Amino acid sequence: MSKTPRKSPKLPADLQLGRAVEWPTSPEQAKLDRVPNPQKDTNYVVRFTAPEFTSLCPITGQPDFAHLMIDYVPGQWLVESKSLKLYLASFRNHGAFHEDCTVEIGKRVASAIKPKWLRIGGYWYPRGGIPIDVFWQTGTLPKGVWVPEQGVAPYRGRG
Predict the structure, then answer these.
(1) Which class is 46-139 in CATH?
(2) Could you give the strand order of the β-sheet that contains 133-139, starting from the edge strand earlier in sequence?
(3) Is 109 marked as binding a ligand?
(4) Which of the residues 14, 33, 41, 64 is marked catalytic?
(5) What is the residue extent of each domain of the chain?
């Protein structure tokens, strides 16, 4: 193993990373940043977990809560995590159904980074006594890539 640290990649100047930025007020306003994948010749899985995702019911305006799990096999690009955090937070005042939020997030991330494969699981807490779980994926999982289960139990208090 080399004692010389890996040289940091040249990052675009317009990244939100490393500077103060305003919280986006809507998903449309939010910016998703990408950074070069230093292991682009290797197939591996990246997982983001957002156990406290919130949005609003588009009919009643009441808050909705979900545990989101995003798994992807990157190609040339990685999702920059601060921008993903800001993007997900932009849904806090956004009215949309569970299905729309989950699929929109998956499509937006996939469009930004063009992964080899991506899946999102939206495990929504019940409203009106019914939990709704939403799943979306795109691309083809490369052969031989290990993808762990998402590990979110079927609703029984989600604890």
Answers:
(1) alpha beta
(2) 46-56, 63-73, 117-124, 133-139
(3) no
(4) 64
(5) 46-139
